[in-house]
Amino acid sequence: MTDITITAPASGIAEGPLTFPGTPPVTDRRGAFAGELARAHSELEQARAHIAEREREIERLRTEQITDGSDPRLIDFWDKAGRIADHADFCQEYDRLAEAMNGTPRHRDWEVEAEVTVTVRVTYSTSATTEEDADDNAREGIDFDDVLAAYRDNGHESFDVSIISTERV
Fold first, then answer.
1. 118-136: per-residue pLDDT in tens?
2. Which backbone phi and psi does 160 adopt, to 5 degrees?
3. Domain ranges in the chain?
4. What residues are paired with 168 via a beta bridge?
5. How far apart are CA 88 and CA 97, in angstroms?
6. CA distance 127 to 59
7. Is the Cα torsion angle 150, 153, 158, 160 positive or negative in sign?
8. pLDDT tens-digit readout, 10-26
9. pTM over 0.70
10. Which stretch of DSSP H or E encloses residue 167?
């Protein structure tokens, strides 16, 4: 590229920077951004170090020998092995192996028979001459429908569960 130099007679034109009225002077602001650039470079290096650390951890998890059956990397293995054992009737062998290796036991279907005693407060209205007669009338007159209606209206106060038997289905 060729520089064009114009030489003018010294009649009113002076040498120096060219400025236009109403425009701010151009200043060099690169020094003000140097700190911001250094901070961005520091964050980038921290991110790269974090990525390298994660990659080392991933490599360790890929290559490290699994010594415990409860290792989370074996969840899919135990799930599939349990389904295969159910399908091929190897349930007893699977259960023995899972227990010996601290693996995930299979979920089984169970049928549980229980006796449940529910305490419900029932209000019974009756006519009697004595308190004892009223109590006797209530004992004889309260039926299942009265208990069920009281339960629906008021809920229950407590209940007890006694297991009678448990069998695998």
1. 888 999 999 999 999 999 9
2. -120, 140
3. 110-168
4. 110
5. 15
6. 84
7. positive
8. 555 666 666 667 777 66
9. no
10. strand 158-168
Amino acid at 103: G
The DSSP-derived string for the chain is ---------SSS---S----TT-PPP---HHHHHHHHHHHHHHHHHHHHHHHHHHHHHHHHHHSPP--TT-GGGHHHHHHHHHHHHHHT-HHHHHHHHHHTT-PPPP--EEEEEEEEEE---------SSHHHHHHHHHHH--HHHHHHHHHHH--SEEEEEEEEEEE-
Closest by CA position to 98, among listed 70, 65, 76, 64: 70
Residue type, 80: K
Q: Which residues contact 95 (CB under 8 A, 6 or more apart)?
A: 105, 106
